Amino acid sequence: MKRIQNLLVLTLLAATLTACGSGRTAETRMIKQVTDGVEAQSNEIRLRNILIVKNENLEGVLVGTLVNWSDEADAITGISINGQPVTQSAPSYELRKNKPVIFAGESANADAFITLTQTPGERIPIVFTFEKAFPVTLDALIVENLEWYKDLLRYKPNAEVAP
Q1: What SS3 state is found at 87?
Q2: Which of 28, 74, 81, 160 has its Cβ near the most Cβ atoms within 10 Å?
């Protein structure tokens, strides 16, 4: 009988110490990052796969997509990377329902970049401000323009808007 009690106590102790009972609220279960880019949300605006590509010109090029799911239009009124306002292809970007604003790539309709002194592998803050929604701060990864990002296509507007 004593052996059974000891075995039961050891089993319960092992389960408790290894956190097997943390359930559906475990911190490791709540991580959403599945690519190099990070994700966030402000009201009905979704920010997806946000990251920075550092190119050979020492530019930090913003990559990512923003989509407004609301019937009410909004706008991106400002973007800063590591506390610096970015150079962007327009003074603001209108966010209409299900009409994404895409930074970089084949479907790009916006461009934003800064001169970057940090190295690939580091994380730096990006702040998006909106006309109506709350601002969003992301901790984004800097990646080199190798492999996936080697021939990064960027939106080429008629004129750029300096910060």
Answers
A1: strand
A2: 81
